[in-house]
Amino acid sequence: MWPALIAKAKEGGLDVIQTYVFWNLHEPQHGRIQYILNFNNLYLKVKKGFPFWLHDVPDIVYRTDNEPFTIDNEYQYVEKAFGEEGSQYVEWAAKMEVGLKTGVPWVMCKQTDVPDPLINACNGMRCGETFTGPNSPNNYQVYGGEPYIRSAEDIAFRVTLFIARKNGSYSNFSLGQLQEGYVFEEEGKCVAFLVNNDHVKMFTVQFRNRSYELPPKSISILSDCQNVTFNTATVNTKSNRRIISPIQTFSSAD
Predict the structure, then answer these.
(1) Is the peptide bond preceding residue 28 cis, with omega within 30 degrees of 0?
(2) Which residues contact 125 (CB under 8 A, 6 or more apart)?
(3) Per residue in 145-166, pLDDT tens?
(4) Most distant CA atoms of the chain, gap in Å
(5) In this predicted structure, what is the pLDDT of residue 134?
(6) What is the pLDDT at residue 253?
(7) What is the pLDDT of residue 197?
(8) Residues of the chain with pLDDT under 50
(9) How far is CA 95 from the centre of its chain?
(10) Residues sharing a CB contact under 8 Å with residue 132, sequence separation 6 or more, in sequence order
């Protein structure tokens, strides 16, 4: 199953896949690797938990920068409990990762004081609106609640908005009550993001003496601040539905 899904992801234009690694299954005993999946020359962003056998490592202290311990995930939730050692651990983890010289970016999840040159990220569904620092509010589907599937169009819009609003040095300006623009300029290069937040109406904006039509709820990317190279409204997918069908009911919590 997985090789076919990975091949389709690559064919669709993806270049990075994020996945959890169940460390206790891939390495049930220290040094005994069970299985490594072939990701077909795609970048792999790995998230992991801890195997039980770490408990038996002599002198290990979890979530601090002692020699037997390893890198942690979503550490900020517990960092304050460790005081100065917590901050020292964050610095140590960053230096250790960069020191491996893997040639690929490192991401520190849910960490507002992430050291350079590591990358912080946003786990939210609407990061362009909610992101105030690394990993602002997330949205989860509650078990038993109304099934929810995000459209590809919405994902394209939200991701592009996040890049436009929250990344790099740029100037932003208002094009109307529900329209906005973001311009990135550096060393003679220029990229602009023209945003229409109106979910119903198309809007024509003026930018640098040119007119641009923005479909409802869309973002146009001008790779040279003149020509539109991509608009998020061009992403089209067939919609589908999830239906929850109960197969067994219980008369009480017992």
Answers:
(1) no
(2) 138, 139, 150, 158
(3) 666 667 778 878 887 887 787 6
(4) 70
(5) 47
(6) 53
(7) 92
(8) 134-138, 140, 168-171
(9) 22
(10) none
Topology classification of domain 152-234: Phosphorylase Kinase; domain 1 (3.30.200)
- Please choose, from the candidates 140, 82, 80, the residue with its C-alpha nearest in 3D space to the C-alpha of residue 112: 80
pLDDT at 136: 40
Are 64 and 89 within 8 A, CB to CB? Answer: yes
Overall residue count recorded for the chain in this entry: 254
Strands (DSSP E) contained in 158-234 are 171-174, 179-186, 189-196, 203-207, 210-214, 218-222, 228-231
pLDDT of residue 137: 40
Q: How far apart are CA 250 and CA 143, in angstroms?
A: 16
**Distance, CA of 221 to CA of 154 (rounded, Å):** 16
- Domain map (residue ranges) of the chain: 152-234
Q: Which helix (H) or strand (E) holds 229?
A: strand 228-231
Report residue 102 as tokens: 């893997």
The whole-number pLDDT of residue 250 equals 61
